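Subject: mismatched residue count in predicted assembly?

I count 699 residues in my input, but I want to confirm that the predicted structure covers every chain. Input:
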Amino acid sequence: MANMAQAVRMALHVGEEHLGVKDIFGQDVGAPLGGVFTATQGLKTAWNTPLDERGIIGCAMGIAMTGDRCVAEIQFCDYIFNTVDLLKIAGNTLWVSHGNYNMPLVVKTPVGAGIRGSVYHSHSFDAWATRLPGWKVVMPSNPLDAYGLMLSAIEDPNPVLFLEPKALLRVRGEELLPGEPSDERELKAMIDAPLGDRSKWKPRWPKLDETFRVPIGKAKITREGDRATVVSYGRMLTLCNRAADELKAEGCAVEVIDLRSLYPYDWQTVRASILKTKRVLFVNEDTEVTNFGEHLSYRVTQELFYDILARPRLLAGKNVPGVGLHPNYEDSSVPQYKEIVEEIRALIAEVP
Amino acid sequence: MSVTKKTLKAPAKGLPLPKELLLQMLDLMIKSRVLEERLIKIYKAGESYFWIGGPGEEAWGVPLGLLVNKGRGHKHDYLHLHYRCSPTLVAMGMPMIDSVRIMMNRATDTSTGGKNFSNHFCYPEWNVTPVSSPIEVQYQMAIGTAWAQRRENKANTKTKGVTIVTGGDAGSAEGDFASCLVWSSRKGYELPILITVQNNKWGISTAYEGQHGEKSVADRGKAFNMRTEVINGNDPIETYIKLKEILEYIRREGKPVLLEATTSRLYGHSSASGASPIPEVDCNREFSMRLMEWGLITEKEIAAITERYETEAREAQELARTEPVPQPEDIWKHIYANNENADWRKF
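Triage response: the counts match. Full output below for your records.
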């Protein structure tokens, strides 16, 4: 099975070949490195930029203004913050220009903790991202969704922020991408750049299904259940799945929803599940104050208040300035597996 | 305009540019000035919330507008302008009513739909990208259009579009300006871009000397091995001749140029500082006097041109008054392409 970095790489290749992508760029995105997580190895339109995040976003906006398709990378979302006003402009250009200028660009950036990345390789960006009107925001939790969402993002005529849970980039999926060789060693031999001299290396791309898409705005139920609903995305989603499996073994079926798209989000799927289970927990690792999960919780109280049996809960990162390197810092800052299990148990045990 | 000097003396070496072009430039400079003065009147009459614009930049902006390869797409020039660029748009053929509609926030304003301040133009059919209020972000986006043009210019030798970006001296302190210098001058990846600075010596109320140590902003380009020029942006003849040659150089070589044009700011920063006349060099007055000295036009003819444009501007205001305004539900239009729903209440 492909890992998420390989899946993104293959989607970008399909983008180059079939969807008109003319530029894939960012710091260390081109040869020889092909991205610090290898997600852009071997791509024919990939190139290296100066170490200048504002330049990367501005360049992407200019390319988009010509109507050309591009995918830009900010190496870690920790370094995207100095581009926020440009991201705002990318999001408002169509609106403020009265429909004159579309901004069809994709910005991909690794997010979140989980790799002992210390203060500046552990930030999350989902709460910030959802405060950028005009953008679509997606975050896959597995390689297949990464492949399908990236293709949808490239095709979308609007700016799309593609958040990559960095701790999952090297994790293999449970499902083959359509057209992917079944032997992962074969895939590796075909598309992973060799160590050492790469100057003569060229990838051999598998014949992938270029029509496969994961539509933006559609969530996925990853575990079915009726005792409680857990809504998450990215790395936290995988922990929620595991928690649901543990509880299922005890005879307690919890429904888990992978939101996949943060904006626009799939309220109908979330709503239907909450109406079934009457209890909901939102889980993400961005800081907890003015967190995207707060918006979702707010909506639950506004629209489903008389239908639920427990207060909506949010488990998110502590509202501290960063994720410290020592495991005691990281593990105390961002939600841990045990906390998720405990929070679900408490949610189910709550008596109205 | 008070012009009293009248002699009939052609320059000894002959006209520096064809007579028709000189008269056309003066005509457009007057048109642009009259338009801006009308916008100020609209503001002072309480028919608009704010004015910011470009009186004092006519001698720079009009030649630029005349020299642009106007059209849509890579093979034409991309323009990343700021909010003092009305002379360029007037020279490109923008009708006065367009500017008045922005000023009066009408629904008929095709640039912003009544959303933005005066002179925040947007003309996709002319590659004029949206003018934005944040200072200098246009220097970042210019990198992208120039990059796309570089790619297409290489693929097709017949297409030679270039990118032109304008901004002020004060804003050149922003890092975005440095980004533009860095990205456009990388060895082997030089961009076909004209980076310009209109130096009016002011950033709102702060003088140039209080913001800059460099003698001229253009000097910064030297560190990046790019061609630099400082021109008198109050002289439309010098501006036209230099700009023409520089644009030909960029189209031919595919390399960047940093050009600084000294200009005036004749009504201050904006309506926030009163929008009243400031005694600085008035390029329209100086150019009028020159053309009269050369016997190309009379004071009476200049007065007639001015009156004609004043009538056009006043009629534009009267028409805009009768036009519809944006409606409350319009806040949801154009958030996403094809008006896809962006309201979470409807997800």
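Chain B touches chain A through 50 residues (CB under 8 Å). Marking this ticket as 'not a bug'.
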